[in-house]
Specification:
It holds the Pfam family ELFV_dehydrog_N. Helix content is about 50%, strand content about 15%. By secondary structure, the chain is α/β, with parallel strands linked by helices. The structure holds 1,4-dihydronicotinamide adenine dinucleotide and 2-oxoglutaric acid. The site of 2-oxoglutaric acid has 13 residues, from β3, α6 and α16.
Length: about 450
Amino acid sequence: MPNQLNAQKYIQEVIEKVKKTNADQPEFIQAVEEVLPSLAPVLEKHPEYMEANLLERFVEPERQIIFRVPWVDDQGKLQVNRGFRVQFNGAIGPYKGGLRFHHTVYLGIIKFLGFEQILKNSLTGLPIGGGKGGSDFDPRGKSDAEIMRFCQSFMTELYRHIGPDVDVPAGDIGVGGREIGYLYGHYRRIRAAFENGVLTGKGLSYGGSLIRPEATGFGVTYFCQEMLKHEGEVFEGKTVALSGFGNVTWGACIKINELGGKVVTLSGPDGYIYDPDGVSGEKIDYLLEMRASGRDQVKDYADKFGVEFYPGEKPWGVKVDIVMPCATQNDIHLEHAKQIVANGVKFVCEGANMPCTNEAVEYFLENGVIVGPAKAANAGGVATSALEMSQNSMRLSWTEEEVDQKLHQIMVNIHNNAMKAAEEYGFGYNLVAGANIAGFIKVAEAMHAQGNY
Ligand SMILES: NC(=O)C1=CN([C@@H]2O[C@H](COP(=O)(O)OP(=O)(O)OC[C@H]3O[C@@H](n4cnc5c(N)ncnc54)[C@H](O)[C@@H]3O)[C@@H](O)[C@H]2O)C=CC1
Ligand SMILES: O=C(O)CCC(=O)C(=O)O
């Protein structure tokens, strides 16, 4: 009992301090408030972690780098953006996590993503620490040459902070194969060395891994398949509401179709589309064109395939069997969660990072909806990045089947480990709490073993 009281009190104190010292970073506070309360039983079992004030160290990044990114646009005008890399926790491996190029990026977004990444990377079972980076650069409407110049300038500063054994960035919103190519080319030029383990998500011709582009979408679908299996159900014949139309949504569409499910919605910042026949075949290929166009609008899909477009709306009112938000954070608020529950949805599986507000997740759990939390469900992307790092170190390439089979097994393991941790610590089949606990245990052990850093 005393430990129980202590743990809860200690967690509250740490949360209060995070709120006070990061008051201008609501997304980071949200991520911390979601994770910390579920760690109480772990701290009760390990009072030594409280004595060593491990949690306060856990919520403070090891290093935050903020830098100027000057670049010249096609009109010859000098533009300036802000670059970020947050090296959050390196206790179990080199910092690992994507770069986001989006106009909304600021320190609070990068910190919430980096914080989530610590637990996610731990859940993969692979030796990778947590980090994240990006810029408020807006790729919309930029030419290829502008994107290249921006990436080169970004790397001109970033290169000194990263390395195959130090910090290994990859893609996220607004950063895909093209951007990784420009970033790597510039890194190689500055370093005068072929150190391709420094970035993942590379093209196949210079050390990329098969299946990495599909991995996050495949992974979230494999994870959802395990959630369905737990309830004695399958994808076959199920309708699915997806949001976004980018990399994760694309991969999820492919795998859901393969498993016999039907994707009926996509979305963008401009609204959502409803396709009652399902997003399949050439329609899935078209998502790649939409993303590459830099227009960032889902209406293009409606125009091309003659389906309904709902401007300014989200897809969460559509009656489906499964909901998979794959666009961005806080896409599903409490009012959407109420609609989703009222529609009888039993499964919500998060492809994006923190796509549901904490209130929405609580409402789902209270109403018996099974939630696949992002840090577990979308870990297939970073897991396959770690497989890319392994291939780079070994100087060899695995086949598509080999990578996919490893990815699939990793997703099954993550699901089972989250499920077991939740059961062991008294949360039942609550994958949200289970993922937090299972991810935390390994990092906490490593931090504690390494002294008071
Ligand atoms: N690419 C990866 O390997 C991984 C990505 N994620 C997460 O998945 C989500 C999607 O990332 P990607 O598909 O890689 O990016 P992307 O750049 O390929 O696609 C992003 C999609 O989200 C939509 N979007 C962005 N901001 C929006 C807003 N404010 N309102 C509505 N729609 C918006 C865009 O229109 C686009 O369809 C992000 O939360 C990302 O952090 C998570 C794990 C790995
Ligand atoms: O593959 C990676 O390292 C990054 C993936 C990522 O950014 C994420 O998991 O959110």
